[in-house]
Structure prediction request, 159 residues.
Amino acid sequence: MTDKTVKPIADKDNAPQPEFTIQRIYIKDVSFESPQAPKVFQENLQPAINLNIHTASTILDKDTHEVVLTTTITAAVESRTIFIIEVKQAGIFTIKNIPDENMGVVLGVTCPTILFPYVREVVSEMAAKGSFQHFYLAPINFEALYMNSLKQKESETTH
Prediction:
């Protein structure tokens, strides 16, 4: 058996085609707190839910990036925190031959979209393991979040 090197397909200008590979998806950090337990289990509460989502990326190597999707869910009744779940879901991605002007979309939309189902599962399981009902995160439009963050940065630089 011989090893063969597979070269990226080139277009008519002999430019290499974009490449995107998931190297690894992993939990970087996870935290669950229920500061009112066990008293909270004796009450019939309908907590308000606050959801915060943040993405960050780090260049690990020339074509290798780590993207971290941080999700924090806080359930509270008035000033009493019922539970807090924080998940930092990360992925290592190989991204080659993507124009610089498109890297923001890949790192801010494509990668978080891939990571989100993993976050969703961890959040649901953490809530259940804390003796609360499964908590299901609604789908998130990362493209809209990314576009809003660009508009916010643009307005900050113009003011």
